[in-house]
Amino acid sequence: MTVYFFVKQNISSATARYRGYLVAEELNKMGIKAIVCEPLGSRSAFSFKKDRFEEFIRNFKILFFAKSEDIFYLVRTVYQLDFYILVLFFKFFFKRKLVFDFDDPIFLRPNKRRRMTRLVKISDAVMAGSHCLADWAKKYNENVCIFPTCVPFSTFANSSHSVAIGKKELVIGWAGLGNIHYENLTILKPVFEELIKIGPPFKFVLLGALKDKRVHKLFEEISGLNVEITDWKDPKEMPKVIRSFDIGVMPLVNNEWNCGKCALKALEYMASGIVTIVSPVGENNYVIKDGLNGFLADSTEEWVNRIRQVYNNRDLAERIGWAAQKTVKEKYSYEVNMPLVKSIIEGL
Question: Judging by DSSP bridges, how do beta strands 202-207 and 170-175 pair with one another?
Answer without folding.
Answer: parallel
